[in-house]
Amino acid sequence: MSKELVTLEPYASSLIESMRSIGYSFETAIADIIDNSISAKATEINIYQRVKNGLPSIQIIDDGSGMSRSELLDALRLGSKNPTEYREKDDLGRFGLGLKSASFSQCRILTVVSKMNNEIHGFQWDLDIVAKTNGFVVRELDEIEISSFSNLSYLNERECGTIVQWENFDRINDSTHDLQDELADLMIIAIEHISLIFHRFLNNKLTIQVNNEKVIPKDPFLKNNGGTQERPIEKIKIEGETITLRPYVLPHLSKLSAADKRLASKANEYYKSQGFYLYRNERLIVWGSYLGVSRKTELGKNLRIQVDIPNSLDYLWEIDVKKSRANVPSIIKKNLSKAIVDGENVSRRVYTFRGNKEVTDIESMWSFFSDRDNKFHFEVNTENPLYKQLAYTMNDDEYRLFQMYLKTLSENLPVQKIYAEVADGKGNIGTQDENLIDDLKAIVEQTNVISSVDIKEILKSLLSTEPYKSSNEAVDYINRKLGEL
């Protein structure tokens, strides 16, 4: 005969303190709160960093559908929804933990005030009270507390809405000398994160403001850039649901302005952004990764593949509580690999075409050579007009010494160092524009006294040579001098 079942109630304080270490960052925690606002059909979300009585707080306020007293209590319950239950197709939640786990990861006091049907209710999780009682207890705000609650006027002016407030940032405070400055810095990072994660919502009907500044959406695929190439769309059917793949190949980096680079990615992350962009109900989950299906390549770094999945397939993708990690289902790996190969071929042509053009023109300073063993090297281009003019001024001994120097120079070109610097996102410093005209004047003066040098040929060559050809002032100067000769 089987024995009776024994109930093991979890220790509230121990469980919640463990939940605080799930792995949220400040920006992913903020994003999880925004998910709830979007699921509540909010069209306007305001985020504020405030100080009251010397103590900082953060509020996330929305004009969504709001909650009744019983709904608010349920929303504050740990595991308020079973992740296996059906959810509406536009619901961004899954585990019934986001509001609590995200908030507890950043603060010890979570207060939620919500309005629905002209009634306003508020409840508060205080982890110090949980520690004292060792119970899953929340405190209900009385009428006086609610009436004096910061930004309550926002709810009073609307039919419905919700305010989520964080206080007592114990972990952040312990890691910094100035909590206010640290929160301000974290908020800047959060704005970048929000502008990318929710860019499709921000381009539709949603407005998000942080301290009264509107968040401008990113465009990771630069869809409005004429140089972006959109590859054929592929739709994959799984269990009656559709997964959609949309590969994009962005223009060559040299064709992008600084504004384009900021628009396409988070600050200083353009070079890390190759790969899948996995969206769940238009909310970005994972980006800049091939999720183990393939590895990143230098010539394929302009490839970005938009992958749209419905929330009904969360279990296949193993979406985590933070909605920041996923695994590719084996059943569709071949489809994703095909999209990568096709997109990388296009991205590779963008780079190799530009590379061949740069090293095969007669005006180029370098010649590129490759062999059947997939090895390559560079040599100074001896067909370049500047090279020829210089060679004409040398006697035999000088020319032989010069050739020896150039051969040594070519064999010691720091290719690995150049690759490392470029892969790290650094650009070529080049010659400063203010020095170009002085350089050109010196060239003209020096060549005028050398009878064997054709100054016209040199100037014509400079018109197609960096850094002169990229400077309008330098081009104008050269053309003016050519007109005088």
Automatic annotation (TrEMBL):
GO MF: metal ion binding
Signal peptide range in chain numbering: none
UniProt entry tagged with the keyword Metal-binding = yes
The record, for Gene3D superfamilies, names: Histidine kinase-like ATPase, C-terminal domain (3.30.565.10)
Sorted keywords for this record are:
Coiled coil, Metal-binding
Establish whether keyword Metal-binding is in the entry.
yes
Instruction: State the name under which the record lists this protein.
Output: ATP-binding protein
Q: Which organism is it from?
A: Enterococcus sulfureus ATCC 49903
The beginning of the lineage is: Bacteria, Bacillati, Bacillota, Bacilli, Lactobacillales
